């Protein structure tokens, strides 16, 4: 069985992330993980922190994926696969959404994406073929989005500093027949390798990883 992390942040883009590429990869290699999906925060605070100017022309996706690229380079020494992901927050609320299997054009204009809100983003991400999973929907200041706008729910968020009320997330996912995921929500030392999924197959890339989640052919890593 392959261990795969679904929810992880780096210090390069996420202002709340403390860990660099070497520390992350060493910890996950020691814990026996075969792959990691980097889901750095895609919100205004983090773009400011990373000094990504949203007012200039051109796609911002490559700048946003700095953490992914650094982890990918470091991971080559350990034989760990690294997938592209993102944790989106729109201007309208404090909700967070994990995005998997997207093409770069989908996130090229962060200002438009964040101003547009979730409802406007739904047809765009579905036309792109991406997968959207709401992270920790019952955490303080968060609320579950309409199930019809989502593909899945993070039913096990294992960050030790938050009460994500995972029991309510599980109930919501089951009631609405949504994809279910588990994730470490790794930010700091001690957060590593708490959650994720177990799979008999190891996806080749980010798009295959999203397809694995759609298939349901995996189990959740639990505490």
Key features?
223 residues, alpha/beta, TIM Barrel, 7 helices, 31% helix, 21% strand, globular
Write the SSE topology:
Elements: E1 2-5, H1 21-30, E2 33-38, E3 41-42, H2 44-49, H3 61-64, H4 66-75, E4 81-88, E5 96-100, H5 110-128, E6 131-135, E7 152-157, H6 166-176, E8 179-183, E9 197-199, H7 206-215, E10 219-220
Parallel strand pairs: 1-2, 2-4, 3-4, 6-7, 7-8
Antiparallel strand pairs: 1-9, 4-5, 5-6, 9-10
Helix pairs in contact: 1-4
Briefly characterize the structure.
Residues 6-125 form the PHP domain. With 223 residues, this protein is of the alpha/beta class.
Helix content: 25-40%
**CATH homologous superfamily, by name?**
Metal-dependent hydrolases
Query: What is the global morphology?
Result: globular
Are there runs of 5+ residues with pLDDT below 50, and where? none
The CATH topology assignment is TIM Barrel
Total beta strand runs: 10
Order of helices and strands: EHEEHHHEEHEEHEEHE
Count of structural domains: 1
Q: End-to-end span in angstroms?
A: 17 Å
Mean pLDDT: 97
Counting DSSP H or I runs of 4 or more residues, the number of helices is 7
Proper CATH architecture: Alpha-Beta Barrel
Main sheet: strands, sense, barrel: 10 strands, mixed
Rounded radius of gyration (Å): 16 Å
Strand content: 15-25%
**Structural class by SSE content:** alpha/beta
Mind telling me the CATH class?
Answer: Alpha Beta
Characterize the quaternary organization of these chains.
single chain
